[in-house]
């Protein structure tokens, strides 16, 4: 068990450290953006607001391209946002003063600081490959936590020193060991929460959970559709930025039966206000002749989430999917995601997340320090290998995790094959990794 804990830590430490640092920053995304883009966000509420269509036209006069999104702003002193995609695929957000009709600023969406940090945190800015690496790191962090708790579990302790409280006055070595182990115990629950909720965004495990949620009947109830549910191969996440629970929602189609022109953005905004959608909503424009307007909001609290599809010709609501429509699993996941992002419970939530990230950084540093002190020359310092099957509890734990997390199973097979085909045949590697000869399972 010690050996698996050791290797899990050594392999994933660099990625885990990066995730902890970027995660601690991302918890304060909206506070940071409010400070960075204050001149773009804040307006003085004087007089009557211009109609949404006029605001969009003002933005289009600045940048030539197709309007993809409109955000009216959640309060009277917030600017409106108009997203425009140019012919080369670049997306810009134009900030418009809805009272004065002036452009406050323009941002290239690919260069927004917090969005870059989000991409580093979620996929290492490496697309699908980065997503899989992050997922694998998260999976092995769970292994590291479970094996760490197994090693921490007191067997002959007479008091709480070194178990629930670190021993700070018995020398540096014991102090560092206790700071690592005791911090790991106290932080394990919160860290597991953040790992599992973060993995909901991953391409393999997260998508599997989402599919299971939908297929189990915990997905989209018939009541959200105005009429029959659409038979569509297009998912809502492909046409709009929506909440996790709505990503797999089939996107309906607009029908132009009488040669109508599309309704204006003014009508869509009016519909949103009539439906009582949370004011932080965005309106995503139809992507073609059969596309729909999509209202999407996933604000600080999951209970306010909403995804609404509207026919672009008739202005009729085709689907209205809210938090109360989620199944039990969907509600739990939605609450977990807003908690992961530091939003659900306000400042307390942000501080809790920050403490978890800082505790993780502390465990990484103390674990690395212990390894350096323990590591002999010419060897990794890993505990001597033994047949894993002889240790029933660790063996069962790894089997269960391999079933629950597919990438764990794949990586365990890869480790086994690496050991069997390479390590066992290279004496230098066996010595460096402290591996016994003729070993079948580790």
TrEMBL record:
Membrane spanning residue stretches: 6-28, 133-153, 185-206, 351-372, 395-422
Keyword Transmembrane recorded: yes
Protein name from the UniProt record: PepSY domain-containing protein
Lineage, broadest ranks: Bacteria, Bacillati, Bacillota, Bacilli, Bacillales
Organism: Salinicoccus cyprini
Domain PepSY: residue ranges: 50-106
The UniProt record lists the keyword Membrane: yes
Domain of life: Bacteria
InterPro entries named among the record's database cross-references: PepSY, PepSY-ass_TM
Keywords: Membrane, Transmembrane, Transmembrane helix
